[in-house]
Amino acid sequence: TVFGLAYDATEREVHLLFSNCTGYIRNIVVPGKTSSQKPYAFVQFGHQQEAMAAMESRQGTTWDVGLPAVAIEVARRDIPVTFVPRQQEPAPVQWGPPQQHYEQHY
């Protein structure tokens, strides 16, 4: 798990950070629960040893001069195949009659 990302961090940026690491599979950026919380990312590797090597090599990386460094921790499990970050979840289905809008012409 990667913490300390910029508020506007993207999966592409995290991909660029880890894609040269042996065993890299994918990443998912999860937005913070509120607008004041920074996003974090899950990064998946083929084997635990590869994840550890990537963590050691990328620990303390900064995105821009003057910004805090990222903090990386080993996650307890792989990213589930069906995982969807909270702000990307589909909106709940609204049941009921469709809303109709009428225009008046004079």
Q: How much of the polypeptide forms β-strand, as a percent range?
A: 15-25%
Q: Please identify the top-level CATH class.
A: Alpha Beta
Given as residue ranges, the uncertain stretches (5+ residues, pLDDT < 50) are: none
* Mean pLDDT across residues: 82
Q: Name the overall outline.
A: globular
CATH evolutionary superfamily: RRM (RNA recognition motif) domain
Helicity, as a percent range: 10-25%
Q: What does the radius of gyration come to?
A: 19 Å
Sheet with the most strands, sense and barrel status = 2 strands, antiparallel
Order of helices and strands: EHEEHE
Cα(first) to Cα(last) distance is: 61 Å
The fold-level CATH name is Alpha-Beta Plaits
Estimated structural class: alpha+beta
Count of DSSP H/I helices: 2
InterPro entries: Nucleotide-bd_a/b_plait_sf, RBD_domain_sf, RRM_dom
Region (Disordered): 87-106
GO molecular function, one term: RNA binding
Organism: Spumella elongata
